[in-house]
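DM from R.C. (forwarded with permission)

"hey, sorry to bug you on a friday — could you get me a structure for this? deadline for the figure draft is monday and I only need the backbone to look sensible"
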Amino acid sequence: MTPSYENDDVDPLYFEDDRRKARVFDSHLLRQPLSVLPTHKPIILGAESTVTEAVRAMQAERRGCVLVTEDGTPASKLSGIFTERDVLLKVVGRGRNPAVLPLREVMTPRPEGLPVECSVAYVLNRMSAGGFRHIPVVDVEERPVRVISVRDVVDFLVAHFPREIQNLPAPGAAPPSTREGA
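My reply, with the result:
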């Protein structure tokens, strides 16, 4: 069964939720600007801040990363990113003391920043290709504007397919034997 489309410049991808009907994953969705994704003000610290300060800030804001700038303010250039993965691999995994360990020693220096005007597809591409769970968005002067997380992208996609995603049966569960509703 091939659905028809009014707009031939759209290159749809099809995801069948059963054999009777097809749902359309329209590439237009991916061409949306990243401004359609949920917005979170980044946590910004300086390179001399300690890992403990960063972890406490991440816990307080329920975030997975801290952006590091030259002077610890959003008015200066992005110089690094410190993530929950860094806590596990570079701090705890190596027995280092987070109370005295400066971020400059364990952050990822010069992280790739995305331009404000990029698309959702570009965000997904960079996250996938780079293996990033968090990616900073910077202005033309390389100052951090926001952070995009994998969760933000997933929430965006779920919002466009709520019925199809939220009503999926558990793996291995039999589909309902009767229709719901009247």
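R.C.: lifesaver. The mean pLDDT is 83.
me: no worries. The longest helix spans residues 51-61.
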